[in-house]
Amino acid sequence: MLTTYEKEERKEGKQLYHYQKGAIQKIFQCFESAVEDYHLLYQLPTGGGKTVIFSEIVSQYLKTQKKKVLVMTHRIELCKQTSNVLSEFGVTNKVIDSKAKLDDQKKFDCFVAMVETLNNRLKDDKLDISDIGLVIIDEAHYNSFTKLFKFFDKAFILGVTATPLSSNIELPMTDNYNELIVGESIESLIENRFLARANMYSYNVGLTSLVVGANGDYTVKSSEDLYTNNEMLSKLMDAYTERCHNKKTLIFNNGINTSLFVYDLFKRAGMPIAHLDNTTTKKERANILKWFKETPNAILTSVSILTTGFDEPSVESIILNRATKSLTLYYQMIGRGSRIFKNKDTFEVIDLGNNFHRFGPWGSTNLDWHRIFKYPSHYLDGILSDEELESNFVYEMPEEIRKSFEKSEALHFDINKTYVASIRSGESSKVVLKRSIAQHAKICVENSEDIFDALMLVKLLNDDIDFRIHRYSKCISKSTHNFLAWLKEDYKKKLRSHLRQNFDLIKSEI
Fold this sequence. Notes:
Layout: H1 18-33, E1 39-43, H2 50-64, E2 68-73, H3 76-88, E3 93-96, E4 110-114, H4 115-123, E5 132-138, E6 156-161, E7 179-182, H5 186-191, E8 197-202, H6 220-227, H7 230-243, E9 249-253, H8 256-268, E10 273-276, H9 282-294, E11 299-303, E12 317-320, H10 327-335, E13 346-351, H11 355-359, H12 369-374, H13 376-381, H14 386-391, H15 399-402, H16 415-424, H17 430-446, H18 451-458, H19 462-476, H20 481-509
Parallel strand pairs: 1-6, 1-7, 2-4, 2-5, 3-4, 5-6, 8-13, 9-11, 9-12, 10-11, 12-13
Helix pairs in contact: 1-2, 16-17, 17-18, 17-20, 18-20, 19-20
């Protein structure tokens, strides 16, 4: 079908890296040996240069074949970016958008089109595709492309994606592609300084109030209810201050209201922040992205719009201010910070949605893409539920607070284990909180000279108390807002009382 791709130094376009040349060689070998309507899927991490690779493939294809090429994307921004990269590789191309006139289509050997626009043009028989020999699909994990496959039953289809896992479990990619070629791993790209390494920090979040929608991910409504409450907004600000202060930061949210709450939170704190969503005009978006690029410590809070088609290498921090059940979205969001830039070889990632626990660290070598491609349901079935994830959480005291309890070796108290033991021994569940209070009192006394010091330390235990109360409420299956609020206040009251009555006794036993 095609002549073998020859490894030559380019005189035009971008310089190809060794792993990109190797990928192109493998793809061309598949071209040569496969039938003309073969469907090949190629995986490469975000930031690895998928557009560069398929642009070189288009360039070489057009030099050796008498057929034309079509590149499909799912967003207009990606159409324009792809067209520009193809031009850098010497490929004269035409973007087919809703305003494009097609009376000059015979002059072009390569077309770039958004899937919905292309679908409409093909239905109206406005585009001649009779001589299309190669179809390239960018972000191939989106299912919107599959409805167009029927128009190209005699073309070689090459899908490219960072995550070969369909956006719809009912339509697995293995049904539409014959073979998967796995490219360079994230770890390898990091080791060879093609990508920056992520410093990852996870803040445990209770997600059991979230609702999963028809698309398989958390609904915007339930996410907004959780992420706009004062507790989560405070956790966001604390995480930013602790890990990302004065660093160029992207914040990803699930809902416009959440992003606006975040914008107001940081704006009131006097920090440089802008908000972006899909209702922002093109002019406003261009101005905001220009400001973000030029401002060293800029913060940009957004909804969905920057997960694909956005490339700003100077980003230093990513905050996942949302939970997702989509592996693809997880990798896309973190990938926005992975570009190497000047002296940047690491970036920060803050997870406020238990996503690290759900999917594993970004770039984990435990992901078997071939197996995920072939058996997607097995992979998805193996992802822990939120209840299972949260049952494994352990409260980790922040370093600054930990210094006030440095004389104590053991700070953790296992509510679940204590509850199970109490039930098995026939005791009331109330003894769980009684023993928790005793343990809290002990660490306060261990690090105090007198009762006044001990009572001051109680104020530092608010987050730990909240964690224990939430864990206890799960054990007894009672977690209404009013009940939890009362339980927390009652706990603190009893802890202070316990200290006043038993300070000297506890001190003598230490």
